Amino acid sequence: xxxxxxPELLDKLDAGKVAKLxxxxxxxxxxxxxxxxxxxxxxxxELFRFDKPVSSIEGGTAIFVEPxxxxxxFPKISRVLMLYPGIVKHFSxxxxxxxxxxxxxxxxxxxxxxxTLAALTRGGFVCPYTTEKANKLVGREFFHNHPGLMLCxxxxxxxxxxxxxxxxxxxxxxxxxxxxxxxVSGKPVPVMERRALVEEYGLNSVRLFGxxxxxxxxxxxxxxxxxxxxxxxxxVVIKDPQMALPPVKYTSSLSNSADLRYAFEFYNDYGRDFxxxxxxxxxxQSVEWDEDEESQRKRCQRLGESILxxxxxxxxRKKEGERITETVQIRVRNLRTVDEFKEHLRxxxxxxxxxxxxxxxxxxxxxxxxxxxxxxxxxxxxxxxELWS
Amino acid sequence: xxxxxxPELLDKLDAGKVAKLxxxxxxxxxxxxxxxxxxxxxxxxELFRFDKPVSSIEGGTAIFVEPxxxxxxFPKISRVLMLYPGIVKHFSxxxxxxxxxxxxxxxxxxxxxxxTLAALTRGGFVCPYTTEKANKLVGREFFHNHPGLMLCxxxxxxxxxxxxxxxxxxxxxxxxxxxxxxxVSGKPVPVMERRALVEEYGLNSVRLFGxxxxxxxxxxxxxxxxxxxxxxxxxVVIKDPQMALPPVKYTSSLSNSADLRYAFEFYNDYGRDFxxxxxxxxxxQSVEWDEDEESQRKRCQRLGESILxxxxxxxxRKKEGERITETVQIRVRNLRTVDEFKEHLRxxxxxxxxxxxxxxxxxxxxxxxxxxxxxxxxxxxxxxxELWS
Lengths: 389, 389
Description:
The structure is a homodimer. Chain A is an alpha+beta fold.
């Protein structure tokens, strides 16, 4: 659907300049505005964000208004379902691939806009909380020397309002770089060069497992994934050392099950599209690893439990009159960040209750209860005897 | 999207007369034609069918051209997920409910059109094979005396091209009536009156479990479902004896699992929407039956196996170079029915290979291999190393 765009908005966005910098026709920019794919956001910084990809422009790309700047979206990483044929086919023009850990947190891009840091989430929103953390964890030194680059990495730890995993022995929140790219073009720095740069500035990189020849990488990745054992490490990303080809990802069955376990607790809020690809991954992995009956049996049990147990728990909670919520926490130095983060969640359409900040050292811990409205309503209605369509 | 409708088509369909008989405004009829919701079908009988519901008209409603007649679609039956609150709420205006078996076959409406029988599948297509079977199994006597009624029932047995289950010890195909309705209005006959009528004409009814008071029916249904044990009986339909309220259905976990097992063998052809509601049923049933740990564990194992085992089998078959197909069979007296049925499957968009008819007694058995193109292609591409988007 097309909508009228106000002259004020057009004025804020210099479509001609943007089109030139992004190397796409200007009508694509104005068309995206009209179709509300390119959305104006006023807080905590004025910007326009691409809600979905348009031509060659990734979803999550942000165009800052004042000062004018562009931060390209982080490209979607395709997934390999069968390691051997997948790696060999995708990296046919490489001799070697690098394997790094895919961590379980939330994707963050950090860039210098004017003279301040901005930390963007995958969708192209500036997250005020992540920005406060980025100032502390990353600082400005890197950007003073490389103003045209952005750091792409995973924010990981228990003080995460999005993915509060605590499998890594992290106290609050840490940032692990997995990519350095040009802000405006999105062009990536080669893997080893990037890792050296990260080290030079005293920052953290995601774990490097090694560099392997293309036709043996599937064996190494299998070893790595199996080596995770019962730990919930998510998986790996397999990369062309030169970063000329896009990377691909591969995940462990346990982390897959953990995802399902999480999503089915809030079953009616997570779309049915969440489930299906995860099930397919399980089946292809079982075939590629040529599992015996016992391993298959365990995999089926794990899958079934990851789906049903959280739903049963949710239904029982609702039966007891509880509200279906998830509690996450943030740890801030500045209480203004809490207010800004409230506004940010509101923009994202997340329904949340903020508890009173508790002082912890020189910071404040704030617990946030996210409310899963659709799951609450659906479960409630069925318990009250409503029919399923 | 709206399309032009040819005058020839408008001529075949007397929209004014149809509107009057269906008691909806005429523009709804012409609008449905333009939006291709009301579709013209030329074989094996000329008719217009509603592909989806329009106002109060059920999807699958058919308007015959020559002679003019209307056969209303079979109404969608809602599902109860929690027996106790569901039954009590839905049937609050009844004292008693009747519980009948929900059989595992395909929904068929049989009606007299002019002076011949027509057997319609759920979608409102006249199925030439089912029509041949209806002539043999049901005959014309009932319709000579009740030309304005249609028999609604389940076609069950191994010689079924749609749902070839053989849990009932049926040799070829049998028809079990579960509803008698007025052809044009869809108005149902009360349960006991209907069962008497069916018996009077020597036809089969679905199994009657009993009539129960509304507030105890959930206990009886639980007993019935648990009594199925390891048999694959699908479930029950719970009805207002007067049929003034619409019935509701409830199914067993084993049959639920069997459905999943079937669908995941052809995982990319069955939508992801197939999976989700089936999983929800399992969770609510487990909660309502207050299962202990061991029963829950078994339910999870069953669910996981129903999902993964068929996919693993499919991937392995494809790896061995096999084509992913399902073989069904029909048994006909008249070879012309085979040709008509071929055309019918073509209309439905089903890709199928018909084997040579084998004479069996005075009939022919014809094996049909249905090809699941999407599952074939997807599995093949991943085995060749394509990435998952």
